[in-house]
Amino acid sequence: MSRPDPARMAAYEVLRAVRVEDAYANLVLPRLLREHGLTGRDAAFATELASGTLRRRGTYDAILDACTDRPLATTAAKVVDALRLGAHQLLAMRVPPHAAISTTVDLVRDRAGKGASGFANAVLRRVGGRDLDAWLDELAPSGSDADLAVRHSHPAWVVAALREALDGADDELAALLAADNAAPAVTLVARPGRISRDALLDQVGVGGGGTPTALSKRGVTMTGGDPGAVPAVAAGDAGVQDEGSQLVALALARAPLTGSDARWLDLTAGPGGKAALLAGLGAQRGALLTAVEKQPHRADLVRRALRGAEGVAEVLTADGTDPGLEAGSFDRVLVDAPCSGLGALRRRPEARWRRTAADVDDLVPLQRALLDSALRLVRPGGVVLYATCSPLLAETRDVVAPVAARDDVTLEPCPMPVDAPGPLPGTTQLWPHRHGTDAMFAALLRRT
Q1: How far is CA 414 from the centre of its chain?
Q2: What would the mean pLDDT of 196-207 be, rounded to a whole number?
Q3: By CB atoms within 10 Å of each CB, which of 1, 155, 325, 371 scores lowest?
Q4: CATH 1.10.940.10 given to domain 6-136
Q5: Residues noted as catalytic
Q6: DSSP states of 170-198 as a string?
């Protein structure tokens, strides 16, 4: 009896950790690669197998359902995890069919027993009977939300919400859904006062495929290699940060301001990427950043990100809706609000299967409370930048519009280096299929 090979076992354990522990694949995968001694091509294979399976889970579940005589929901979860891995190898990877099937059967036998392995063998032979396009033509032939959900592996409610956010632009919806399933390059940020972008490019080198980002003047993309092996990243002089997130912090720093510009605030700072960028930008002007984070473990991540940085006043473990800070005492405030995260599905594909429409309803009151808190804490004439890594109108337009209508607040054009109009005049909505970034929303509000 053959034992599962280490690369496939590592991918299987990623899926199990996501399912059982609510883990994020990008966080648990490096540890599992080390535990199984995987490097080079084997590590790349395990990474694509795990990440690709999570991205296309909805599609594979529809195909697997069509290949079984009983609902997939009644099959043991450990077997379903293995079947999804097998489907990805058969339909989306250059793995010979016999190898994809036999190795998956070995995995099922090891995890669930001999009886389940026979079932897996029969199902996967049916899956491999046609290619992915043929399956999609049969199971998702139209452009309805339900068929797009199967074709592009998104929950149907997410498809409907993204259609609304695109203002009914049906010709773009498929492109957006496809972009969510494309693995992004790793993006680094050169933190001001610590390293220049040119120096970071030199460190990434040809082997890492380093290139300057198109929109952020602080960003570098890597197409290969381990970002943790870049000396500047290891030292905290640079960090891993999507270009859209960099643009949000840069926009807050660029906003015009008269009078005092000495006290900056990141009201929801965990895990610390934007705070580190803001601290560097503020230090160049003599400003000090206060960072607030409610969750203690995330506050520790913020402290780690800010370690050795200039321009830091303090890091507080406190609730951003009522952090105990003096009203009207800050000049610039960032609210990177907790949100559904549906703008970052390229990087965290499993998030689409965790979130529900009810989760969004639960998050909106918190987003509104944080924005209200920020406007209390900023001085008259100061600015607040409200951002979400979500394009959903409930988390963007519907949070900002009531606040922008207040007598003591004005909504102003968000200073971005790209034309990316959002759902309200002056706001910004970045998109993966248009701009190559996560779907970041940003609105700049001034307290009058």
Answers
A1: 22
A2: 89
A3: 1
A4: yes
A5: 389
A6: HHHHHHHHHHHTSPPPEEEEE-TTT--HH
Phi (first) and psi of residue 17, to 5 degrees: -65, -40
Pick the CATH number of 186-240 from 3.10.490, 3.30.450, 1.10.10, 3.30.70: 3.30.70
Specify the pTM.
0.93
The boundaries of every CATH 3.40.50.150 domain in the chain are 243-447
Per-residue model confidence (pLDDT) at position 26: 87
What one-character DSSP code corresponds to residue 221? E
Can you read off the two tokens belonging to residue 30? 């490096």
Report which DSSP code applies to 80.
H
**Domain at 243-447, CATH homologous superfamily:** Vaccinia Virus protein VP39 (3.40.50.150)
pLDDT at 353 over 90: yes
Residues in the annotated binding site: 293, 319, 336
Which residues contribute to the annotated binding site for S-adenosyl-L-methionine?
293, 319, 336
Determine how β-strand 378-388 pairs with β-strand 409-412. Answer: unpaired
Q: Are 306 and 404 in contact (CB under 8 A)?
A: no
What's the confidence (pLDDT) of residue 169? 73
What's 421's DSSP letter?
A: B
Candidates 150, 86, 153, 111; CA nearest to 16 is 111
Q: How far is CA 412 from the centre of its chain?
A: 27
Q: Are 416 and 155 in contact (CB under 8 A)?
A: no
| Residue intervals in the chain for CATH 1.10.940.10 | 6-136
Helices (H), 153-290: 156-165, 170-180, 197-204, 231-235, 243-254, 273-283
Domain boundaries for CATH 3.30.70 within the chain = 186-240
